From TrEMBL:
GO molecular function, one term: structural constituent of ribosome
Family assignment from sequence similarity: Belongs to the bacterial ribosomal protein bL17 family.
Keywords: Ribonucleoprotein, Ribosomal protein
Protein name: 50S ribosomal protein L17
Residue ranges, compositional bias (Acidic residues): 153-162
Species name: Candidatus Olsenella pullistercoris
């Protein structure tokens, strides 16, 4: 049974307040492209923002309706879908947000962050400049069994000569 095992972060409030707070933060992020909030809240809305941008990149009517239900603002959804249609996030496969830490808040030492939408194009990783080829190892000479016997033979001759 799943008693008291809710998914997601509770953020110190009841479920309805958490849902309303997350919806408000996501809406503010899309309106301003950057918000200042605490670290835990920024991490909590990161998935919701990514989901809405993925819907916007898809661009069909079902995705638009899901985004309207998540944001609650048709005009804002239209703006987000237009940005996605213009190719703002066309080269990204995720990671649409950036969280930069500012430090602790003076009153309660909560970690304050700036969360912003990433608009820069993705930089391709540098390809290796030279291809490394495996060099064949030289054959290792096996020690011969006759060599130790040959060393013992002169010693015996010396002992016998004395």
């Amino acid at each position: 049974m799943r008693h008291n095992k809710k998914r997601g972060m509770k953020l110190g409030t009841d479920a309805s307040h958490t849902k309303a707070m997350k919806k408000s933060l996501v809406r503010a992020l899309f309106e301003n492209d950057r918000i200042k909030t605490i670290d835990v809240r920024a991490k909590a809305i990161r998935g919701d923002v990514d989901k809405i941008i993925t819907w916007a990149k898809k661009g069909d009517i079902a995705s638009r309706r899901l985004a309207i239900a998540a944001l609650g603002d048709k005009d804002l959804v239209r703006e987000v879908f237009e940005k996605a249609a213009q190719g703002m996030w066309a080269d990204r496969n995720g990671g649409y947000t950036r969280i930069m830490k500012l430090g602790p808040r003076k009153g309660d030492a909560a970690e304050i962050v700036i969360m912003e939408l990433v608009t820069e194009p993705v930089k391709a990783k540098a390809a290796p400049k030279a291809k490394v080829t495996k060099v064949e190892e030289a054959p290792v000479a096996e020690p011969e069994l006759e060599a130790p016997a040959a060393e013992e033979a002169p010693a015996e001759e010396e002992n016998g000569a004395e």
